Each structure stands twice: as C-alpha cells, then as structure tokens.
Amino acid sequence: MDIVILAVVIAVVVLGALGGLIVGSRRKKQLPPPPPAAPDITAPPAEPHVGDEAETPREEPRRTIEEVDLPDGSAPVVVEEPPAEAPEIEIPEPTAGRLVRLRTRLSRSQNALGKGLLTLLSREHLDEDTWEEIEDTLLTADVGVQPTQELVERLRERVKVLGTRTPEELRTLLREELVTLVGPDMDRAVKTEPEDRKPGIVMVVGVNGTGKTTTTGKLARVLVADGQSVVLGAADTFRAAAADQLQTWGERVGAHTVRGPEGGDPASVAFDAVKEGKEMGANVVLIDTAGRLHTKTGLMDELGKVKRVVEKQAPVDEVLLVLDATTGQNGLVQARVFAEVVDITGIVLTKLDGTAKGGIVVAVQRELGVPVKLVGLGEGADDLAPFEPEAFVDALIGE
Fold first, then answer.
1. What is the pLDDT of residue 255?
2. Of 169, 183, 192, 375, which residue is most buried, by most CB within 10 angstroms?
3. Averaged confidence pLDDT in the chain
4. In whole angstroms, what is the distance from residue 136 CA to residue 114 CA?
C-alpha cells in the first residue's frame, strides 16, 4: 500500500514538472520586446536654498572702497546727437535763353504743325482745296477760328505776291506770319519788382491737376536764378501734403515757406506770407492757391477773397493762371471763368512738350487778351522757361 501511494506522488510530481516546462516555453515565445532604454535627462539646476539650508558662501576676491573709482562730482557726460543736415542749396540754371536750350524738346511734339504747313504751301498749285487743308491743320493745332482765318488770308496775299516759292522763301514767310500771330510785342515779363515797394506779390491760380504747386516751386527757381529772394505762401490748405511739397521746392533754393494748418483759412496764410515777406525784406512773395474746379461758384468766390485779403497789405502785382496745354479748347473755358473772378495778368502753359498742340498759345492769348509768360516743357526742375515767341516759332517749323 505504501508503495502505491509513493508511486502516485512521484507521478503527480513528474506531471507537474512537465506542465511547468510547457507553460514556461509558451510564455517565452509570447513576451513583447523589451522597451527602449530611457534617454538621459539632465536634472534641472537645484533651486537656491535659504535659511538653514543655505550653502556656505564661497570665498571671492573683493575690492575695497579705496580701489573703486568714484565719480568726481563733475557734470554728467551728455552724448550729443549729430545735427540734422540742412538740405543742400541748389543753384538753378540761368533763365536767359532757357527756351532756346529746350527747343529740341519742344519741337519733338510741335513739328507736325510747322512741317504740315510747309508741305502744303510747297505744292505747285495752291487751289481752294489746299487752302482748306491749311485751315484744317491750323484748327487741329488749337489755333482757334478767328486767328486761323487771319493767318490764311495773310498767307494767301503774300504767296500771291511772292510768285515763285523756294523752300527757304516759304520758311521765312511762314515764320514771319506765325511770329506775328503769336504776338512779339506783348509784355511777357513777370512783374515781380514794383518800383515803390518790396516785395512784389504773385498769385498762382488754376484748376486741379494742372501742376500748379509744382509750377510755383519752379517759378521760385526762375526768380532765384535771376538773383531775387523769394518767400513762398502755401495757401493750398485743402490738398494733403501740398504745403510739404511747396516747402521742399523752397528748401532746394533757400526760399522761406509760410504755411498754416491743413484745412485752415487760405486767405490767412496768404496774408501772413506777405507780412513775413515784408519783414524779411524779400524781393518776391509767391502765393500758391488751392486748385479748384471752375464750375464751383463757392470755391471761385473764395479765390477772390484771398486776393482781397492780400491787398489789405499791398497790391497783387501778378495773377498767373496755370493751364494744362494738353486740354486744348477746354482750357479756354477754364480761363474765361478765372478771368471773371480775378484779374488774370499772365498765362503759364504746362505740359507743352507732350501731346499739346502749339496753337493753344495763340488761342488763349486771344481769349483773355493777356500774354503767355511761362511755359513748362518737362518734368525737370529747370524745365519752366520764360516764353519767347521767336524761339517758340522756330521750334514749330523746325530746321
């Protein structure tokens, strides 16, 4: 009996051992791969301790009071900023003969008129159709109806008397008649030097977009080039940055600019400009007025107010109307309205080097009965020139 029990126990132990081996082998096969090694993390620096936990301070070299440089009580050192550089004063180009020097630029866009007339007059037979073409050429060039008719009549008579017509004779004939039409005897001097007082006062007026402020700045250069001292009045208080623009022009030639707050009373600025011009002993005060539509009655009346306020101190010597030469006949409408509000004494034609037609010089003079005194022939600072009829006609008919 004892032997049987012992055998059963041994069998159970053997079976248990075999079962353990089988389970262990299965577990080894199903175990996941070991996790990757954790990265080394640097521990943050320990926070400083206070009180009982504070560390014993380390010995460090220290300077005594004798070794420390103390301030001697003198004034503190002030670092001065370099002064702002004043704009360099330019010396404008002399105005004498300026239009002659700009003749090539003028003739680029104006030759069509002169060459067209010379070509028509050079025909062997000048019949009625040819004379009508000559009239059309003049009208297309904005000369105007009445001046065109007068010129054609004079040309008819002179060609008939001349008989044979060589190219040189025709050129001379046409030049003489065009100079007569433009008006060589008109007084084209800009009145800036009244005999009984200083300064001379010039108002510059015109519609929006004609280049009025730029023309005022260029006119200042013309006057400075002729040896006159100038004060600029920035009475265009409506257009943003108009005063800045005018002041920049003035600084380039050393002209003082009087300005007021944006949107302020333009008559007040004009009054102050004349007052300062008197105090400074300037030769000329140029007043740049705000551009305005000729169809706006209120704005035009305000222009008359500016002139009346200025004349409480001294008479206005010149009122220059700036016209865009490219607007043609529309410019004559503008000129008419301005002449009703202020007494226009002279015309400034800008953009005469572009698509403008030379005949506008004749038309606007006939319309207002006042001369063209200055012409703008480009974007350069010195491209504003006193108008000279002979040089202008020479540019029209070319070499």
1. 92
2. 375
3. 80
4. 13
Tokens 């409506």 found at? 238
Query: Which tokens hold the place of 320?
Result: 């220059």
What's residue 202's pLDDT? 95
DSSP, collapsed to helix, strand or coil, labels residue 231 as strand
pLDDT of 275 strictly over 90 = yes
**364 backbone dihedrals φ, ψ, rounded to 5°:** -70, -35
Q: How confident is the model at residue 64 (pLDDT cuts 50, 70, 90)?
A: low
* Nearest-angstrom CA–CA distance, 185 and 180: 9
Rounded to whole angstroms, the Cα distance separating 312 from 345 reads: 20
User: What values do phi and psi take at 270, rounded to 5?
Assistant: -60, -40
CA distance 193 to 284: 8
